[in-house]
Write a structure and sequence with these properties.
The structure holds 2 protein chains of 2 kinds. Chain A contains 11 helices and 2 strands, in the order αααααααβααβαα. Chain A is an all-alpha fold. Chain B is 77% helix and 0% strand. Chain B has helices at residues 3-14, 18-40, 43-60, 70-96, 101-105, 115-119, 122-133, 137-148, 153-159, 164-189. The longest helix of chain B has 27 residues, at 70-96. Chain B starts with a helix and ends with a helix. Classes of the chains: A mainly alpha, B mainly alpha. Chains A and B meet through helix 1, helix 3, helix 4 and helix 5 of A and helix 2, helix 3, helix 7, helix 8 and helix 10 of B.
């Protein structure tokens, strides 16, 4: 037995498999009762310290964290449009083209506003101003175009979700994923537009849709029955299909409703 | 998601794409929470650490070297956030309370349950938690990384921005304190 004893620190490192002279310590412990006793005590204490079981967090936890921090993220110095261009030029171009097309069709088929009656020259029948109120009328038109576009977007998204809900339990969902991926970018743009337009309920539905679309896009193409079931359960739990249908119907009703003045046109005069 | 996709997501996040950062948050949140919980020993504190860690990560993404491993980089941030939170909490606690470890882990006199039963009881867990709670934030972080996370002294030193010697001695001090605090339990065993 060596006359020199090892310190508590040496033996702690030895316990954790670190430190030099490991072979020497091992031989020493076999021969030295003092050090062997100290080592047993260290090992016994550390052996009592089992890893604490963290409370379980579900699959959706990442999304929950994201929802909590997303509004706290600091501004990036780049211009707002830079990330869109860097990320996916083609999808952005497609989305922009779609918006232009929808705006064009909406402009062609939209019923023209009747001319304001004499004695009330500043107002259209729907309450929007003419002349000096052209900006307000344009604003309302833009909002209607947004409603039309979003309603159509919701219809397309509903079809993707329905495909997922009815897909075979195991198999290839790559078609639905490609479709979902296309819709995802458009969905973000519409959500932003809806938020800007003060359409909070529309934005909320689009936000929930984004999460589901993202989950579909990020799933493996050859999905397992269990994974598919989880996606379905979450769509069900969020009543997403129901919300999409209701919102789509509501938007179409608003499209058909006569034009009204909106709170976004505070300068509008109604006599 | 394979390594190429992961690298692409990370590259987009570094360019300021918040949607890519969202993917990183979704992918790493659960492991971040587990580490934060082990570091803090408290669910609410762990949630605070999770949020603060991702916010810090977002702010510091520009400094992240793309060759490095994002998970490793993130666990360093989580470790430091945990230490900061525990320091702040300890400072508040010190101002308000004067509790000591001796009170917290004092064993009941007389005949208690046997060591085997004690080992499985909530009481032993409470004492262990009390003993861990008495470590300084740095000692607790270093000990958690070494004992629960299996990180080497070198890795601990990198994670906590300490020299190797300081990291080592943080672990040593933690082990010494724990041995003293838990000695009564050990003596019951022997």
């Amino acid at each position: 037995m060596s006359a020199r004893h090892y310190s508590e620190d040496d033996l702690t490192l030895y316990y954790y498999g670190e430190g030099r002279r490991r072979d020497a310590i091992e031989q020493h412990l076999a021969a030295c009762a003092t050090c062997a006793s100290l080592y047993r005590d260290i090992a016994g204490t550390l052996g009592m310290l089992a890893a604490p079981e963290a409370p379980e967090r579900g699959e959706q936890y990442g999304l929950e964290v994201w929802q909590r921090i997303r509004h706290k993220l600091p501004e990036r110095p780049e211009p707002w449009w830079a990330s869109f261009f860097q990320r996916d030029r083609l999808t952005l171009a497609a989305a922009a083209a779609m918006l232009v097309l929808v705006a064009f069709i909406a402009g062609r088929v939209w019923p023209r506003q009747p001319v304001a009656p004499a004695g009330n020259p500043g107002l259209t029948a729907g309450g929007a101003t003419t002349g000096g109120g052209n900006a307000a009328a344009g604003d309302t038109r833009q909002q209607r175009i947004l409603l039309t576009s979003v309603a159509e977007h919701l219809d397309r998204t509903e079809r993707v979700l329905t495909d997922i809900m009815n897909a075979p339990d195991t198999g290839d969902i790559s078609n639905a994923q490609r479709w979902a991926d296309d819709l995802l970018t458009t969905s973000r743009l519409y959500r932003q537009d809806a938020e800007d337009a003060g359409e909070q309920s529309v934005a909320a539905v689009l936000d929930a849709l984004e999460r589901s679309l993202l989950e579909i896009v990020n799933s493996p193409s050859k999905i397992t029955a269990a994974d598919l079931e989880q996606i379905r359960r979450r769509i069900d739990a969020a009543a997403l299909l129901f919300k999409v249908r209701v919102m789509s119907d509501e938007l179409r009703q608003r499209e058909l409703a006569p034009q009204r003045s909106t709170p976004r046109n505070p300068t509008q005069k109604v006599s | 998601m394979d390594a190429t996709e992961a690298a692409a997501v990370l590259a987009r996040a570094r360019q300021g794409d918040s949607e890519a950062f969202r993917e990183l948050v979704e992918r790493h949140s659960r492991s971040v929470f587990r580490l934060a919980y082990r570091m803090t020993g408290n669910e609410q504190d762990a949630e605070d650490v999770v949020q603060e860690s991702f916010l810090r990560a977002y702010r510091q993404l520009g400094r992240f070297e793309s060759r490095a491993n994002f998970g490793t980089w993130l666990y360093r941030i989580v470790s430091n956030c945990s230490v900061d939170l525990m320091r702040a909490k300890q400072a508040r606690h010190d101002q308000v309370h004067g509790d000591s470890l001796d009170d917290a882990v004092e064993l009941p006199a007389g005949d208690g349950p046997g060591p085997e039963r004690m080992a499985q009881s909530a009481e032993i867990e409470r004492r262990v938690q009390a003993a861990l709670g008495e470590l300084s934030p740095l000692e607790r972080a270093a000990f958690t990384l070494r004992h629960y996370e299996g990180r080497s002294i070198e890795e601990i030193s990198a994670a906590l921005n300490l020299g190797t010697s300081a990291a080592k001695h943080s672990v040593f001090r933690a082990v010494k304190k724990l041995r003293i605090a838990l000695a009564p339990l050990r003596s019951q065993e022997s």
